[in-house]
Amino acid sequence: MSKREKEWRRVKTLPAMSEVVPFIMVNRSGAQIFVKDSIETDRLEKYMREKQQNGMPNLSLMHIFIAAYVKTVAQRPAIDRFIRGQRVWTRNNVEIALTIKKEMVLESPDTVVKIKLPKTATLKEVYESLNNAITSYRNDPGGDFDDTAKAFTRLPALLFKLAIHTLKCMDYFNLIPRSLQDLSPFHCSYFITSMGSLGIPAIYHHLYDFGTCPIFFAFGTKRRAYTLDAEGNIKKSSYVDFSFTLDERICDGYYYASALKYMKALLKNPWRLDEPSEVVPDIK
């Protein structure tokens, strides 16, 4: 079995309707669905303070959301599927992509950082992997992805367009070399972006027709709101709004709802992120 086959495999026991839908909704952008929700952050902030005082000084909501997603994938593996060649495939790991800047100024260039995690990953593993990737880029901006993208931009426009068309055809038949897919921000399980770092609310980000990314997650800046507790008393709490853009072809709405509920339960009790997950395998 090749390395590529070990990292993902085709799902062959889907219901007939799930096999038909990718041939009807051919493009990922045409199969987008949108979900918006919020989470109270009081317990999250307590948990983050504990971790920041015990070896994770740079811990942020970004790490928390990634760790919660990975743990959700372990229990709801269908959200880690993707469509390629109008067929449904499932992954054996979780690939996370996010855009970063070297500095938070208008002129600072941005790039995409990717990390690959096992489905058993704990918050500590997420924290170390992501921080290492970000630190490596900021200490030495550029790298393979930026260099590859720059090489394409040097082509004349017509050749540039032809090259992208060729890549799309190769992607359809899974012929893009793994080394290039490892660099590509469009080939991942989950793309996450923080609007909170920009001081604005969560957005709905589109999915890309190129690549394999079926889920785009965005979260916004913290906000305060007054709510009623169980006794009817007014309570002031902190919340973060977040949004998902999802490829509806990889699993049904009931499954997505179950995954969202599971992820929110983790965020309400983030101490569970310290424990390795027992991985539920996807169907054959």
E-strand count: 9
Q: Which percent band covers the strand fraction?
A: 15-25%
Strand order of the largest sheet: 2-9-8-7-5-6
Task: Kindly provide the radius of gyration, computed on alpha-carbon positions and rounded to a whole number of angstroms.
Answer: 20 Å
Share of residues in helices: 25-40%
Order of helices and strands: HEHEHHEEEEHHHHEEEH
Q: Please tell me the total number of domains.
A: 1
| Shape summary | globular
Count helical runs: 9
Helix-strand category: alpha+beta
CATH superfamily: Chloramphenicol acetyltransferase-like domain
Q: Report mean pLDDT, rounded to a whole number.
A: 91
Q: Give the class-level CATH name.
A: Alpha Beta
The name of the CATH architecture is: 2-Layer Sandwich
The largest sheet is: 6 strands, mixed
What is the CATH fold-level name? Chloramphenicol Acetyltransferase
Unreliable runs, pLDDT <50, ≥5 residues? none
